[in-house]
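Practice problem: predict the structure.
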Amino acid sequence: MQISTLNSAQPSGALADAIDAVLPQTQCKQCGYDGCRPYADAVAAGAPINRCPPGGDALVATLASVTGRERIALDRSCGEAHALTLARIDEAICIGCTLCIEACPVDAIVGAAKRMHTVLPALCTGCELCVAPCPVDCIAMVPAGRAWSREDARASRDRHLARNRRVARTATPAPTSVTIDDERQRRQAAIAAALVRARARRKAFDTHRK
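Answer:
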């Protein structure tokens, strides 16, 4: 892959585009920014080039070339570079709360409220953003058994942009504190009820195994 070399004297938009073009587009936020494009904009404005664990030291070297800066070691406070992993949902435990679907930056999880969810392996970026919101810990990261390619990155960028446009179209006016409290209570009640159902299913499953 040919890499265009720019530097800080170039227009910031062109430099940010060049940086964004070589980022892995996992949208994992480990860099501290809200996705790959915001990080590209930040690097173009002078942010460190070594805050992308999915890209590892190889990406740092590439960004050094693109930006004309000195090559430095990966900032491991952001995370460690490792082989691609994918999210996997334990379907026997999933309660259908949709929190993982809301968290996925590339629409790689399908399902509906109170229905089982599943991850589409070909679309998952391994960002892990779906893991923490899950109230029943039914999501695990497993080895992908393949490398993340530039084609994967391009497709992921397209899905992320499409998701952002959809979210922007469906955005509603900022709710009042009363509305927020009501919605929080409804969500908590729904999750609590789903947990009861999940525990009942698990108990029945364990009893059947005995």
